[in-house]
Write the structure tokens for this entry.
Amino acid sequence: MVNSKMYELGTHKSTIRTIFEFGRKRAAEMGEDSVFDFSLGNPNVPTPDFIRDTAIDILKNGVPSEVHGYTVAPGKPEAREAVARSINKRFGINYSGKNIFFTAGAAAAITISFKALCEEGDEFITFAPFFPEYRCFVESVGGKLVVVPARPVDWQIDFEAFESLLTPHTKAVIVNSPNNPSGAIYSEETITRLAKILSAKEKEYGHPIFIISDEPYRELDYNGFTVPYIPKYYHNTLVCYSYSKSFSLAGERIGYIVVPDEVADFGEVFGAIAGAARVLTHVNAPSLWQLVISRTAERPSDISTYVKNGKLLYDGLKAAGFTCVQPQGAFYLFPKALEEDDYAFCERAKKYGLLLVPGTDFGCPGYFRAAYCIKTETIERSLPLFQQLAEEYR
Ligand SMILES: Cc1ncc(COP(=O)(O)O)c(C=O)c1O
């Protein structure tokens, strides 16, 4: 009667959902202070005042039909121009509004991009560990997700494995840097090598291969690391950006796709993006938030809490004996679990109220993710518990 795949997707309890429910039960029984929820990537830094003030001003003083009405599908011209200007200023590029397509966050941006590009038999390559939604997004448009095994020593790309998985069916490579869940940023060296390999393969196969750069964490770079702007290194790049994390606007659903002039047949790609957005019933990104972004696109993000939390948790876990690559961005730590079975490890951590996500969910067994977009004080109180957990394995 119903589509069984959709039913499965809609009713299957994700690990994060199960962890969340465990946390609520424990909080009801033992109090909120006994729960250390590292499971969710929901920003805890408040939305900046300048964003709230701008939204309030627009709501109070804007023309209602402009604030709340439909917009043209790619977005309001002034918002598209504002985003293009801000990118040009930062990265020395020469975009205009025509290069920007507003979306409801990065999830919509990547799904629309997959749909726009995917033809029968196409493969989309990504690198473990990866954002689990890639699989259902790619499969929903009829594509096949191909996963390159992880390189845990620094979470950069295992190029040998990558090259062995490229085929004439490869339509695009999904890059997520800063990365969820590893916190790694792909270095300039990594991006340059990736671009070189793809350029050679485009020639060999005689068709374009795209990079889809999923960038909801672009502004969250620290510890001396910066995120290379991939379109400067590779011509066939689509950038999928979001304000969910940078301005703590995850529930408002606002982001965009950049389609650079350099992509193979700009008009065709932009047209397919508009078509994909149409059949996915995207209609337009939220009008109010397009207006807010048109006034705030050049404002910086406040990442000080994430820098502080990342250091605190990294130092604390290292002191407790965990093996972990220091995060370079985003707000995730991805340490090695203290036993091979990451599910068993995360189960054991629950005894202490430590809610962690097994690495298997991100295509990387033997590790776990701890999201540190939570109160600093909660992290401070959790450190002795990580110590006790580690003691159990000595
Ligand atoms: C890697 C990655 N891509 C995309 C998304 C979706 O972001 P948005 O809220 O902008 O749709 C997330 C959200 O956590 C993410 O971690």
Observations:
- Residues 188-205 form the longest helix (18 residues).
